[in-house]
Amino acid sequence: MKKAILFDLDGTILDFKKSEEIALKKVFLKRKVLLDEEKVFLYTRINRKFWNMLAEGKMSKEKVVVARFKEFLKELNVPFDPREIAIDYLEALSEEAYFLPGAEEFLEEMKEKGYRMAAVTNGIRFVQENRSRKLNLDRFFEFVLTSEEAGFEKPDPRIFWLALERMNLKKCEIVYVGDDLKSDLEGARNAGIDFILFSPEINIIVENCHVARNFEELKDIIETLR
User: Fold this and answer.
1) At a CB cut-off of 8 Å and minimum separation 6, what does 201 contact?
2) At what angle do helices 37-55 and 16-29 cross, to 10 degrees?
3) Are residue 116 and residue 170 in the same domain, yes or no?
């Protein structure tokens, strides 16, 4: 039985899509621009492209947070300053914090079963810290370790090793749960720790990888790991 569970945050425990859409619409509504579903999807696609570049080490986080809006504004053909939009968006995003359906209950159950828990995230530090406070994640997690604090972005194994060091655990005593094949799966494999892919929206099969499609499946998989 594993002693601890390490989680990714967005898309695994937190409903980032909901937070992202609300924050994005607020920022543009402030500038009298209404974003429909198609435009939100366009931003999501652009944003994913740049975060993948971050995970691949091709662009720094500081550049990503502005470059994504530079491209998005070009697609919208509006004359706003991408740096101002980026700042406003991160402020708005930090105020929007929601659990994925079933996540809070799942964490409560895992805590009752005696599992130690923590989180590692590539998200912007002040955004993740504020959202964590809003949801009182310290009820469940010993800490939320951001890549800015660690000095390494997932999939760099050193962010996982730092989390292990903080928890005073061996690799074999922990399992990591995340939703991203690049930063999470590759990161866990780089670090030499067991991994479960959380994929509630996409029916996916990954070679030599546990996949959970909901929190019940996730609980069952965790409890079978040795």
Assistant:
1) none
2) 120
3) yes
Q: What CATH number is given to the structural domain containing 79? A: 1.10.150.240
CA angle 87, 89, 91 (to 5 degrees): 70
One-letter amino acid of 29:
L
Q: Is residue 226's pLDDT more than 90?
A: no
**Category of 206 on φ-ψ map: left (φ > 0), alpha (ψ -120 to 50) or beta:** beta
Q: Among 115, 112, 111, which residue's Cα sits nearest to residue 169? A: 115
Q: Say which residue the tokens 């697609």 belong to.
A: 75
Q: Is the pTM of this model over 0.90?
A: yes
Peptide bond into 155 cis (omega under 30): yes
- What is residue 226's DSSP assignment? -
pLDDT digits (tens, 9 = 90+) for 46-56: 999 999 998 88
| Domain tally, the chain | 2
- Domain range for 188 is 4-15+98-224
